[in-house]
Amino acid sequence: MAGVLIEIKTDENSVLMALLKKLSDFEDRKRGLFEDIGSTVTENIRERWTRGEGLNGRWPLSVRVMREGGTTLRKTSRLMNSITYNATDNGLEIGTDAEYGAIHHFGGVIDMPARTRTLYFRQDGRTGLVGNRFVRQSRSNFAQDVQAKAYKVNMPERPWLGITDDDAQDIVNLVEGTILDE
């Protein structure tokens, strides 16, 4: 044989042979590894979310939070609670089925069309004067239709779906644990 050759000889009890034996049954344990990775990364995303952090650090406060208080992207926590994973034999998907997840992640502009709205008030039965405060429809005795103009809502990007350096280290630890069977 021309060229260079490296020959490695091992006995059955060597560390290399033990590692190769563990790798040979990796195919049977792969799905469990993907389940563990999905569970860990999903939990890490939710933990960052409760702290108001995304992939790039703290999110800027939303207009709602500045007005009403609370935490950005957590009015009902529906989006955070919809984060899930799907482990298969060949990979892993992490995401949400909430249709507004992408606009919060990537940012963008939402065009709100012009529309007709019905406003509800209380009218004094004796004087006929209409109050200047909005009330629920069930408490109203006076309604007025108004035309609302079209407007745009600028949503800043708040990246939340992805893998941080800490997540990557968790994944490496899980892979090592699975391969070395720890």
TrEMBL record:
Pfam families: Phage_tail_S. InterPro entries: Phage_virion_morphogenesis (IPR006522). This is Mu-like prophage protein gpG. It comes from Acinetobacter kookii.
